[in-house]
Amino acid sequence: MHQKLNIKQKVAEIALSYSTHVPTEQRVTITEPAAAAKIFRGIWEPETFELMESFKLMLLNRSNQVLGIVKLSQGGITGTIVDVRLIYGIALKSVATAIILCHNHPSGRLVPSDADKQLTKQVCKAGAILDIPVLDHIILTKEGYFSFAGQGLLPAQTFTHSYLKEINL
To answer: What one-character DSSP code corresponds to residue 26?
Structure first.
């Protein structure tokens, strides 16, 4: 005799929620790479800045207002692992319409590595499919920052949603 399956015990329920404590009129608007770099620098943990590499994600709404920032990973001295699926899972859950990537280089070197370029290209391709563009990828060091958008290395050359489909990495 077959036991009747209790579906609630056999299938996980997925719950989605999103809330913000910052009123729309008080949100910061990103208009240029320097503004994004300043915000990232302001929330970075200073005690680990030159010790280990971390990767963070800024989520933006249609008006380029910051919805929030999420730390995606923390690694070692020379790298950290980033999962593109997590980036867009978070972006979709927060109803972001654009994102800005950021990681630090503990070495102080303001030059993107081949791995940085490859990751940026992958994230841009996924964003093109989902219509959630990468507006910039910023590399922070103690003394400065490097902006992929500022150097013309991203399809979104300005902080607008006029998104080109070509990836120039």
So the answer is: G
CA distances from 156 to 65, 99, 105 (A): 16, 11, 23
Total number of domains constituting the chain: 1
Let me know if 60 is exposed, middle or buried by CB neighbors in 10 A (0-12, 13-18, 19+).
buried
Q: Is residue 85 in a domain? A: yes
The whole-number pLDDT of residue 89 equals 95
pLDDT of residue 39 exceeding 70, the answer is yes
- Here the tokens at position 117 are 């370029």
SS3 content of the chain, % helix, strand, coil (to 5): 25, 20, 55
* Alpha helix ranges (H) inside the chain: 7-10, 33-43, 84-93, 114-130
| Token pair for 1 | 């005799």
Tokens representing residue 126 in the block: 């996924």
- Find the angle CA(54)-CA(58)-CA(60) to the nearest 5 degrees: 175
Q: Determine if the pTM surpasses 0.70.
A: yes
The range of the structural domain enclosing residue 65 comes to 44-145
Closest CA to 100 of 47, 52, 41: 41
CATH number, residue 69: 3.40.140.10
List, as one string, the DSSP characters of 119-164.
Answer: HHHHHHHHHHHHT--EEEEEEE-SS-EEETTTTT-SS--SSSS---
